[in-house]
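Comment on the following before class.
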Amino acid sequence: MNQASPLKTGLCAAGLFFGLTTAACNAAPPQELPEVYLTDPARLAEVQARVQAGDPALEPAVAALIEIAEETMELPMVSIADKPSTPPSGNKNDYVSLSPYWWPNPDTEDGLPYVRRDGEINPERDLYDVNKLGDFGKVVSWCGFAYYFTGDERFAEEAVKRIEHFLIDPETRMTPRMQYGQFVPGVNNGRKYGVIETLRLRWVPDAISLLEGSEAMTPEVMSGARQWFADYAIWLNTSEFGTGERDGPNNHGTWAEAQIAYYSAFAGDWDTVKEMADRVPERIAHQFEPNGEQPIEIERTKGLDYTEFNLRAMTELAVLAERVGVDLWSFQTDDGRSIRQGFDFAMPYFASEADWPYKQITPHQKKHDWYVQSLRRASIAYDDPRFEEVISKLDGITGKGIVFRDLIISLPAESE
């Protein structure tokens, strides 16, 4: 395993802002910026310095971040082991989830086997572990970034408690595998597609790293968290379900490669990050048409959402690929298939400048908080004002979207 990081950036954090107490600011002494994976360390440092200096342009995003983090702190402390039935393994620490688009069979008395209704989520899904996974990811991610920008130890303390409970304590931790994710009643005990559900954890490694300077974080918790993600990355890259997802032709495959890359990076395994980055050009060649369409994604019942969803995975892989010397942003095949062409095709539809010609059974505006992430990354990578123009046209951006755009993924430089 290659433990050397390809990028390290330093930062001094100091000062008061937006009514935080002197004690809160003193809780985050000057320190080297922790390694991060989905965020650009230099941009993150620049934005934090602007926040600490009281940049009024960032006040709405900081206020939204604090509000969201405080809301997530109210979520109950949950454990994967807390469920009424035991998985086939006999271990309640194993994650279990119902496949979202599968429903009771209307033609059988017992409803078995379940039948597929693409794009329609079965509410029975809430009875299993998916919301526990999501709540854990929310609390740690939002609190980790809130601590980084505010220095408020409340956020660090809450995040560290959740990390110990969900990833480390033998009685309450989640086993680092997805053997029983997205099971279908009457059909199977689990499917490879469950791997995509751990996207709910993808911001957790960055958030944990940003907690390293807090009073609450200990070497034992940091080491335990890194080990959990190391074990999960290995499972993803070696198990039948993990490799089955990784080799998938659609967004599931892209996201599996992305997850392997950033969990491996958090574990210090940059060789595996390079391995995943080197797989992406072939994926671009097979997933995109020369005009930028993604045939496998547009055939879904929410074709525009899935078009952006796969582009978002591509942009996150491109960010990590830069760290290992692979340029995915400018890669294109001989006939022009590329990430950039994928955006050029989709942006008129994202901005509602043209009517989406394929299926989209729910309003795509509901996903604009997510769209803004991929568009902002592309805006930074391509230095093209068209991306910011499209972002400005997105409807319904909430506090979460504002925070991702302006703080976590970062604003363009002030001179822009």
Notes: Residues 7-31 have pLDDT under 50 and may be disordered.
